[in-house]
């Protein structure tokens, strides 16, 4: 009877192992939602009979760890796939579907996406970069129609700009968006021409198809008919687009229908890229987020750093919508990831405007701060520090990010002399107390003056943010600080005592102080200790976290009495002292 039971459990275990084997291949299908593909082209990863896998979730975690430890091909070596089409056909929704996340802003409004947006994607054994672009417009439309179709405003956030300058900037906006889309098409190996199946064939679709056929016939062009959620109606909706000269493929970026077949066609037009033989495992690449109020020159700084028109620069408020990630290599060979963000206005101003894209852009800017390592807070030289700048600075300090203050448009300050910089820095330090430790860089991005200093300062800030102090040096600094100024006594005559301190973490540097009672150290003394740490040990450009741990709490958490705890500490000290001897 036991043999039969054992054989039955062995068969059940084999069935479970087969289901786990299928579960290991699920992450590749997550990129296309509900789409399924029978042959993924991947070698099956089968656990051995000795491995005990408790659940498919654990198997997915192990697979994810294996992928993370493997060598990856850099983004600039991967083939690119561009998504083009007229406005409001679902390009950003398809981009999010392919890259597996909400990286692009998706709103049911035309003209939301303006700059090129890159995202990494894979399908089977192929890995590639997907490029989201703004809507390609046609030259046959009038300027008024273009403004209405792109929903460009000449009033929101542009009160201080002359009307003639506003109109000229709006007139150039469609050309700038099309230029960004053209760059994406030229650098891509495969082009996904996206149309709207619900709206039907449009004159703009015909002109875009002729443009692609005339100039890019040597590339793989795939006609995808979006918004075909129903499989039955999808074929009839797509049949209308045969007149464009391409074979239409009905898909739905919202539900994922047909995206599996789309990715098959994409991979058939790509050449498989093998990584270089000397490719090493990718090291830590710090991210620098460029944030600030609208029209302070954030996009100009990014373009000046990378040496190309990576993003659209315009006096139109809210030109940048998405958070644009760009790889950059410094003069010393160090790699950075630059993140250009949308201008952050006051919460009340965003709410009163009623603009959903602007609200989403501000949220993306805050997320960019959260996922960055160093934040470059850009302010306008003539405006100096405003209330909104102070709120952004408090947000940066609260997130624990390294920071440097970039005073842009420094050439607009009249009658500068040697004392101008000193007085200006004093004014900034007095108004932005949350970032009193941040270095200040003066630049003129539109002329390219002193822009390289931003990267140099950011690299220094990142090194300070990742620096560790030895326990011996740290305790020496603390002892000198306590000897110079002892903790104040309470009314009952009690005084705080610092036993020892240690650095618990980096990014940001975090120090733990073991004391007799944390309540005996007021906020003023904690700020004094932070100031002494900065004076003696540096840490310029990064916030410092000080944690105060009471001895009583340690004893209660361990469930031991004071005598036992002191005895264990004394024994541990004897052991540590006996090791060097």
TrEMBL record:
Database matches in SUPFAM superfamilies: P-loop containing nucleoside triphosphate hydrolases
Domain G, first and last residues per copy: 80-227, 288-409
Region named Disordered: 39-72, 551-581
UniProt-listed Pfam families: KH_dom-like, MMR_HSR1
Location of the GTPase Der C-terminal KH-domain-like domain: 468-549
Domain of life from the UniProt record: Eukaryota
Alphabetical UniProt keywords: GTP-binding, Nucleotide-binding, Repeat, Ribosome biogenesis
Classification via PANTHER family: GTPASE DER (PTHR43834:SF2)
Similarity comment: Belongs to the TRAFAC class TrmE-Era-EngA-EngB-Septin-like GTPase superfamily. EngA (Der) GTPase family.
Protein name in the entry: GTPase Der
Organismal lineage: Eukaryota, Viridiplantae, Streptophyta, Embryophyta, Tracheophyta
């Amino acid at each position: 009877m036991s043999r039969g039971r054992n054989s039955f459990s062995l068969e059940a275990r084999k069935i479970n192992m087969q289901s786990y084997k299928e579960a290991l291949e699920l992450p590749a299908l997550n990129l296309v939602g509900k789409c399924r593909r029978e042959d993924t082209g991947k070698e099956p990863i089968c656990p051995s009979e000795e491995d005990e896998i408790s659940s498919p979730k654990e198997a997915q975690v192990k697979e994810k760890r294996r992928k993370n430890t493997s060598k990856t091909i850099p983004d600039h070596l991967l083939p690119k796939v561009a998504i083009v089409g007229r406005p409001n056909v679902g390009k950003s929704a398809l981009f999010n579907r392919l890259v597996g996340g909400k990286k692009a802003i998706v709103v049911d409004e035309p003209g939301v996406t303006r700059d090129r947006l890159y995202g990494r994607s894979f399908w089977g054994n192929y890995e590639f970069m997907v490029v989201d672009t703004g809507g390609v417009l046609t030259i046959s439309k009038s300027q008024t129609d273009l403004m209405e179709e792109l929903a460009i405003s000449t009033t929101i956030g542009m009160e201080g700009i002359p009307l003639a300058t506003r109109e000229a900037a709006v007139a150039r906006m469609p050309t700038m968006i099309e230029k960004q889309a053209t760059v994406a098409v030229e650098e891509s190996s495969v082009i996904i021409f996206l149309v709207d199946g619900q709206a039907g064939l449009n004159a703009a679709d015909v002109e875009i198809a002729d443009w692609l056929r005339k100039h890019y016939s040597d590339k793989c062009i795939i006609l995808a008919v979006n918004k075909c959620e129903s499989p039955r109606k999808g074929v009839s909706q797509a049949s209308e687009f045969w007149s464009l000269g391409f074979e239409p493929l009905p898909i739905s970026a919202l539900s994922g229908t047909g995206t599996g077949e789309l990715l098959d066609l994409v991979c058939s037009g790509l050449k498989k890229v093998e990584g270089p033989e000397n490719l090493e495992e990718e090291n830590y690449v710090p991210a620098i987020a460029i944030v600030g109020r609208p029209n302070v020159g954030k996009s100009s700084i990014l373009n000046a750093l990378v040496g190309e028109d990576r993003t659209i620069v315009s006096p139109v408020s809210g030109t940048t919508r998405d958070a644009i990630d760009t790889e950059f290599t410094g003069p010393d060979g160090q790699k950075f990831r630059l993140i250009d963000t949308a201008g952050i206005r006051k919460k009340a101003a965003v709410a009163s405007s009623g603009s959903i894209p602007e609200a989403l852009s501000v949220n993306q800017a805050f997320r960019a701060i959260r996922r960055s390592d160093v934040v470059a807070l850009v302010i306008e030289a003539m405006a100096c520090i405003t209330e909104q700048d102070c709120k952004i600075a408090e947000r940066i300090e609260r997130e624990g990010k390294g920071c440097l203050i970039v005073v842009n448009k420094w050439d607009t300050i009249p009658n500068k002399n040697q004392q101008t910089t000193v007085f200006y820095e004093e004014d900034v330090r007095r108004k932005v107390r949350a970032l009193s430790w941040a270095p200040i860089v003066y630049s003129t991005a539109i002329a390219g003056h002193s822009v390289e200093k931003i990267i140099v300062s950011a690299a220094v800030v990142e090194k300070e943010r990742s620096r560790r102090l030895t326990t011996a040096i740290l305790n020496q600094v603390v002892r000198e600080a306590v000897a110079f100024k002892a903790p104040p006594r309470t009314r009952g005559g009690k005084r705080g005592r610092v036993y020892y301190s240690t650095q618990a973490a980096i990014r940001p540097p975090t120090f733990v102080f073991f004391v007799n009672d944390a309540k005996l150290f007021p906020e003023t003394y904690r700020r004094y200790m932070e100031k002494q740490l900065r004076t003696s040990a540096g840490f310029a450009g990064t916030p410092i976290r000080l944690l105060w741990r009471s001895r009583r709490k340690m004893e209660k958490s361990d469930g031991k009495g004071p005598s036992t705890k002191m005895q264990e500490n004394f024994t541990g000290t004897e052991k540590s002292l006996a090791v060097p001897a």
